[in-house]
Design a protein that fits this description.
Radius of gyration: 22 Å
Number of helices: 8
Keywords: Endoplasmic reticulum, Membrane, Transmembrane, Transmembrane helix
Strand content: under 5%
Structural class: mainly alpha
Largest sheet: none
Protein name: EXPERA domain-containing protein
Membrane topology: Multi-pass membrane protein
Organism: Gymnopilus dilepis
Number of domains: 1
Family: Belongs to the TMEM97/sigma-2 receptor family.
Order of helices and strands: HHHHHHHH
Helix content: over 70%
Length: about 210
């Protein structure tokens, strides 16, 4: 038997009417989506843009980031360190970021601001996917050789301790937030399912 609209509204209505500032995790996710969308469009997806379409300031920003951090992934696909054939997996992740993650940033930003629960299943998928791909990037950074006179002489892609810490400070938050989101949204959906099952059972006995 279907749950009555009146009982459904009791389950869903109160949370959606809370202001965003009263929902700290949602506020974190909204801020994260906004920041990530900008970083995605301005930096990450430059690999796919035609050169004539990239304004000078955007190209300069990417060059500054690569020069400062020696990011072996972003710099690698950009050709800053030679060929990028070995980074097919990272290019695949960038394509996934373009066709899946970027739209989710917009949808999630709008839905969470309204307190909509219909976005929860999609955010579970996003969080699990993004945390997994970012973890692979973190592992690559950790395994990138330490810069030494030998790596410099042989032209091996390497990073100093300071550059590695800088890269980790950039990548780790983009792993933690989606991971927390996936767990949080899974718990929220589980709670809603339990409530719906309980109401449905109660309705059967009427």
């Amino acid at each position: 038997m279907l749950i009555s609209n009146e009982k459904q509204s009791k389950v869903y209505k109160s949370y959606s009417h809370l202001p965003l500032t009263a929902r700290p995790l949602d506020l974190l996710y909204v801020a994260f989506f906004g920041i990530h969308l900008i970083a995605t469009l301005v930096v990450d997806l430059q690999y796919f843009y035609p050169a004539w379409l990239v304004p000078g300031w955007m190209r300069a920003l990417l060059d500054f980031y690569i020069g400062m951090s020696k990011d072996p992934l972003v710099g690698g696909v950009d050709g800053a360190f030679g060929g990028s054939e070995h980074l097919v997996w990272f290019k695949t992740f960038l394509a996934l970021e373009a066709v899946f993650q970027a739209p989710v940033f917009v949808l999630g930003f709008r839905a969470l601001r309204r307190g909509s629960k219909s976005i929860y299943p999609l955010l579970i998928l996003y969080g699990a996917s993004s945390a997994t791909t970012t973890l692979a990037c973190i592992t690559t950074i950790l395994q990138t050789p330490q810069t030494t006179p030998e790596t410099l002489a042989q032209g091996i892609v390497s990073v100093t301790t300071q550059e590695r810490l800088m890269l980790l400070s950039s990548y780790v938050p983009f792993f933690l937030v989606p991971f927390i989101m996936a767990v949080d949204m899974t718990l929220r959906v589980s709670k809603l399912v339990r409530k719906a099952i309980k109401l449905e059972d109660e309705e059967k006995w009427k």
